[in-house]
């Protein structure tokens, strides 16, 4: 990742810790936890690549997994270490490194991997494919990984309420029907937006058998304002919807039109 991306996460480390506590982002959190529970191995060593401040790593450690955290941002890893140690837990390692350099990790060293973020920021296809191949290399036979991509189709839906002024140029609407690369976005940094079929192709080309895929925001995708209102005004309805959305995140009628597209995959022979 570029220095721009590194600076973004170093400067926003605390904000990234808080991000998944946001009422709307809780849908992504719950859906991802559900996929982890369903598709990661029941025990073993997990490499959390793009761990950020360690929210998912903490969940895994509390369940008895061994966990290595791997992230570009030293500030995020420091937050992760602090919060993990406050729980009386211990990670296997904290590795501050660019996810394009997974060669520093041993071959067939991990039972499972999370890749929930790095692929958002790798603009070049060859580099993304190499990253997926390196995830394949570090996994034990039959190891599983969960990959996350930003989905341009879902961002179009979200954009209606979150950045509608962009669409004063009608061509920008149609741009969201395909892959996109951004040097920088309002409120975000350098980014690559995929589309579901391209993301699936990339993971398969990297040597993986796709087990399942999901849309993290499920049927609530693009409804940030309304979901937040329900959180404030009718907590029971909010909780019911978030629970149902996480349970339906793999349903084909919802999964391809969400902001985050998740792929559960198993290592196969290339």
TrEMBL record:
InterPro entries: Methyltransf_25 (IPR041698), SAM-dependent_MTases_sf (IPR029063). GO terms for molecular function: methyltransferase activity. Keywords: Methyltransferase, S-adenosyl-L-methionine, Transferase. One of its GO terms (biological process) is methylation. Pfam families: Methyltransf_25. It comes from the Bacteria. CDD domains: AdoMet_MTases. Its EC number is 2.1.1.-. Residues 46-143 form the Methyltransferase domain. This is Class I SAM-dependent methyltransferase. It comes from Paenibacillus haidiansis.
């Amino acid at each position: 990742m570029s220095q721009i991306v590194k600076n973004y996460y170093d400067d926003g480390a605390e904000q990234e810790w808080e991000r998944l506590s946001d009422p709307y982002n809780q849908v992504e959190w719950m859906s991802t936890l559900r996929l982890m529970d369903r598709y990661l191995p029941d025990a073993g060593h997990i490499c959390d690549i793009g761990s950020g401040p360690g929210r998912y790593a903490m969940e895994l450690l509390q369940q008895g997994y061994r966990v290595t955290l791997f992230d570009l941002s030293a500030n995020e890893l420091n937050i992760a270490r602090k919060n993990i140690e406050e729980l009386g837990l211990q990670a296997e390692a904290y590795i501050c490194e660019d996810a394009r350099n997974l060669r520093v990790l041993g071959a067939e060293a991990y039972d499972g991997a999370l890749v929930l973020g790095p692929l958002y920021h790798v603009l070049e296809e060859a580099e993304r494919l190499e990253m997926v191949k390196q995830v394949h290399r570090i996994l034990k036979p039959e190891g599983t990984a969960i990959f996350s991509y930003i989905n341009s189709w879902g961002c179009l839906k979200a954009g209606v309420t979150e950045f509608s002024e962009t669409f004063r140029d009608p061509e920008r609407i149609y741009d969201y029907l395909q892959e996109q690369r951004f040097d920088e976005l309002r409120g975000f940094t350098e980014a690559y937006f995929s589309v579901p079929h391209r993301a699936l192709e990339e993971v398969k080309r990297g040597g993986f058998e796709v087990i399942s895929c999901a849309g993290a925001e499920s049927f609530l995708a693009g409804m940030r304002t309304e979901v937040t209102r329900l959180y404030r005004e009718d907590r029971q309805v909010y909780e019911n919807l978030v629970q149902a959305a996480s349970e339906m995140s793999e349903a084909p009628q919802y999964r391809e039109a969400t902001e985050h597209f998740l792929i559960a995959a198993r290592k196969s022979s290339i």
